[in-house]
Amino acid sequence: MILVAPALAQAVLFSKPSQFAGKVLVVEDGGYRILRFHDQGHDSEQSRCEVKRPTYLVHEYTRLQLLGLTFLEKPPERILVIGLGGASLTKALHGLYPMARVDSVEIDPVVVEAARKFFFYREGPRVRTFVQDARQYVRQTRERYDIVFLDAFDGLDVPEVLRTQQFYRDVASLLCSEGSVVVANLHRNSDTYASDRNTLASVFGQTCAFAGVGNVLLVNRLRPGSCDILEAAARLAPEYDLVRYARMRDDSDWDRTAPLVTGS
């Protein structure tokens, strides 16, 4: 996520201690609502919502995640988002595919409370929230998904238990078919970036990378496949100019000898 400096002019709408994030804050600033974690003296921005357009994706990395949809052979019917935050991605996906079921898994009940109260997050038969450890959810659920988005952060990093080889295998077991997609959001400057790339590659047969500012979006499939993502991007969510993002393919190298994160 994004490390930020405190701003005195912002109005604090919500402040509540969290066993997972130190303190969860919601502030309003110039027509935006911002979800922040305050932990160990640092503020990190987790989500940002434009009040007048609550389903609009403000941050670049959230728009990059939509590229995962262009790899699907048909529109998704079942979508899983791991990590709710301010529900920006979940709301956008529901807006794009109102007949699909969008499930979100979030370990922190304080985050879910903030999303419901301040970020226009509304659940229903096709939008569900599971307040649960993602590891438990993926191991216990009988649901199957066309696409899974991995976007859980405990501040600036992905929790180690959610970036292990075993966790990725468990996520892969939820996919409807070999053409289904797993989208992973990583920080390029993280000390674990190379290990995360290698760990994902050890589970999935195909990984395509797209680079944003500080973030790398990885689209993973169990088997290699081909698709015209530029054509698909031109049709999907034209307000974001996804063709521009689709051209941000990242072919830069990384340390392929970095150790796998095995986990349990």
Draw up the topology in text.
Layout: E1 2-4, E2 11-18, E3 22-29, E4 32-39, E5 42-50, H1 60-65, E6 78-82, H2 88-96, E7 101-106, H3 109-118, E8 127-131, H4 134-140, E9 147-150, H5 165-172, E10 181-187, H6 193-203, E11 206-211, E12 215-221, H7 229-235, H8 242-246
Parallel strand pairs: 6-7, 6-9, 7-8, 9-10
Antiparallel strand pairs: 1-5, 2-3, 3-4, 4-5, 10-12, 11-12
Q: What's the CATH architecture name of the largest domain?
A: 3-Layer(aba) Sandwich
Number of domains: 2
Q: CATH topology of the largest domain, what is it called?
A: Rossmann fold
CATH class of the largest domain: Alpha Beta
Percent in helix? 10-25%
**Average pLDDT level:** 92
Rg, rounded, reads 17 Å
The number of distinct β-strands equals: 12
Structural class: alpha/beta
The fraction of residues assigned to DSSP E strands is 25-35%
CATH fourth-tier homologous superfamily of the largest domain: Vaccinia Virus protein VP39
Arrangement of strands in the largest sheet:
8-7-6-9-10-12-11
Q: Rough shape?
A: globular
Provide the succession of SSEs.
Answer: EEEEEHEHEHEHEHEHEEHH
The major beta sheet can be summarized as: 7 strands, mixed
Distance between the termini: 25 Å
Compute the number of helices.
8
Low-confidence stretches: none
Regarding quaternary structure, how should these chains be classified? Answer: single chain
What does this structure look like?
Helix content is 24%, strand content 29%. It has a seven-stranded mixed beta sheet with strand order 8-7-6-9-10-12-11, with helices on both faces. It has 264 residues and is α/β, with parallel strands linked by helices. It has two domains: 2-50; 60-246, Vaccinia Virus protein VP39 (Rossmann fold, 3-Layer(aba) Sandwich), CATH 3.40.50.150. It is globular. The chain is built from eight helices and twelve strands. The longest helix is centred in the C-terminal third of the chain and has 11 residues, at 193-203.
